[in-house]
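To whoever picks this up:

The parser on our side crashed when reading a file containing two proteins. I've narrowed it down to the boundary between the first structure block and the second sequence. Both blocks are reproduced below exactly, byte for byte. First block:
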Amino acid sequence: MTLSKIFAALVAMALAVPAVAEDPGVFKIPGTDSTIKFTGYVQLDTTLDFSGRVGNIEGLDWATFLPGVPADDSVDGKRKNPQLYMTARTSRFGIQTNTPTKVGAVGLRLEGDFNGPNGDQSETYTNSVVFRLRHAYGTVGNLLVGQTWSTFLDLGAAPDTVDFNGPGSLALVRNPMVRYTLKIMPGATVAIAAENARGAQFGGAKFQTLPDFHANVTYGGKWGHVSLRGVTQQYNLVQATDVAAKTAFSVAGAVSGSAKIGGDTLVAQFSGGPGIGRYLLNALGANVFFPDDDPSNQGGNAGAFQVAPNGDIELVTAYAYHVGFTHVWTPQLRSNAVWSQTFIEDPKVAGTGTQIDNLVEKEMMQAFVNTFWSFAKNAELGLEYSYGQWKSFATAAVPELKGTQNRVTATVHYNFF
């Protein structure tokens, strides 16, 4: 059955059953004790880049990914501007169900969007986007099993941006996981999770033995919230010359929160540590060293480690922060200002003090300024200017490089109801 037929069948079922009065949008499934809710939206995003941007926005990420911005003095940086791109690929659809059972209510969430890499497809094809899985999990009491946002992500401290990705300080990772959340006092929770690690999904030398272990302590109230998080990761790497696989272990953390100031909101986050590359969007683009200089050997490196000439794993330390402020002008109009920076420590080879190469970004800065207008109860318009710049490490032979982003983004967003 095609996706369109599944969608049509679900809509027909929703129209045929009455809504649960106390929760609009939730329907009782005939002949069962279960309820179902449909979620999602249709969205059109338009970006206009006045300086360099990622070269392959169909096959890669079209939203802000600062490490992918070309160097200012490259052909893409100097000659390809301005550039326009329009897409509806972030539109999404989801369902949620709830079923009372002897062991407690069993909840389910299934959601996807069309923002998967297009490969060789483009606007010339009638099917120019790829459906991808976002959330797929079930809950029983305090236990969650399935795929959803990583426990390392604090959505409550994420800035309000028009750009789909926002600042690169965020851990925009959805992992398969087993997570247990316990309420320890009014307003306070502790979540413990075992999440899928990044192994050698695309080949390469890295492989997965243990999951990533997460802990998240959150306390909140009407004033806002505070979240303290930690993650452990194990890295396993095999080299052709090794008798046994190399192993490294890392511990990284984050602290974040929000504060209500009248009708406005302030959010902030700081995160960092060795090997944290996978949980910092900007660090994913860090170009790190492998002895054979073969990118295919990275095996899911994600800017988190390098390999010394002797085959040892050397973790790359990175840290980042962001601050965002939301001002509400009227119930229909709000504006945001966001500032973020990411720093990557000098990745030296085997502690010799020799810089690897000049393409490793040493620091990145980003700024977003936007306004949202809710012109209907289920629709809004957003307009944003974003600036970003990365700078590289320099070598004795090559000076510091930099890449600059100047982008205007507009979005028109329609919720289903």
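<<boundary where parser fails>>
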Amino acid sequence: MRTWLKALARQCGATQAALAWYDDGHATLAAEVNVGALDVSQDTATEAQRLALLTVAEECIDQGVSLLAPTPPGQVSTWVTRAHERLRAQRRATVLSVPLPGAQIPLGAVVLSWSDGNPPTEDAQAVLIDGLWRLGPLLAAHRQAWRPWHWHVRQAIRQAWQRWLHPQNMATRRWRLALLAAALAMTLVPWPARVGGMARIEGLQQRVMVSPTDGFIKAAHVLPGDHVKADQVLVDLAEQDLQLERDKWLSQIAQQDNAYAAAMTRADRSEAAISLSKLEEAQAQLALVDEQLSRAQLKAPFQGVVIQGDLSQSIGAPVKQGDTLVTVASTDGYRVIMDVDETDIGRIRIGQTGVIALSALPWQTLDLQVQRITPQAQTREGRNVYEVQARFTEPVPEHVRPGLMGPAKIRIGWCPPLWGWIRPVVDRGRLMIWSWWG
């Protein structure tokens, strides 16, 4: 910058040139060069001279025009040139100041002085002023390129604040303030935090009715969804084979009874003992067949609803002992089983409350309370989940049945919503970083 000022002074024939920048309502001296001898040599005089230069620059910048002192003969200046006149009297020189153009106010000013009393002609001054005006943006860009980074940050903040306060941005300012308030609320205001998962309703008691023996299905009296009463017949098994088996053992009992009586008549104790043991065996087999006949009809163990077992299309089909035929769930009470992901199970505690919204009844939610947490994880859809058992804390509507499913959420405390959303990402990122670096 000093090199450029010295070249400018020599080209114009000036003995001194100075460049001042204008910031925050005050001018600051950027560079000053002397070409030729000056009659001011003391430090105090040099400081006074710099203050005079800054006053001249501010006078030029405030009015936004080029100022010359003294005024050429025959011309009358309508601009204020008091600082120029004082500097001219101090230096006994001609003083010319040229403002550097800016967006709204000048960026600064160039001050030239001729101590020999031979300033450039009016045409030369016009060319000089025009050149400095054209060179102003380049000087400003050069200046900004050498400014520190914190200055650029302050300028960006200041410009953004000025745009914010501009009257034309009133509507924009309102919705931005609304967004800012919403962001602050989501970041600082604690909201109820919840952990969710899919849940299903099960009966408090559930009984699986199995085939007591090998046989065939004779009749099915219920379908899934039917309400049943205690001891109501659900399924009839074919008993023809059991009746034949019963007749067989009845004949065996009669035969062995006659053999035992004949042996006692002959006083044949060994034959009597054998006949007695066979008689007792036949009686035991008959009792077993009678028990199987009594279980040929599967009856409901309690009042409830059938949740599984459509045998209407399996009449006459063979079944084996232990095959599942019908599942009955009690309607006296229900429990809710919720699948909670392993990343959230650590925040579930017994006694916490929540709600469930059934897929069949999305307009209604039911209150829950956690009763039990299973210690063993299970794999569901490629992820590990834990089953959390909960109970209803209010009367259950009549249309609620076992087997219904829907999302459930458990309240685990309070936290800002933004943290609740980003917490899973932060936890997974922290785990990933730990797995990489240990």
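After patching the parser it read the second block fine. The radius of gyration is 52 Å. DSSP finds nine helices and 20 strands in the chain.
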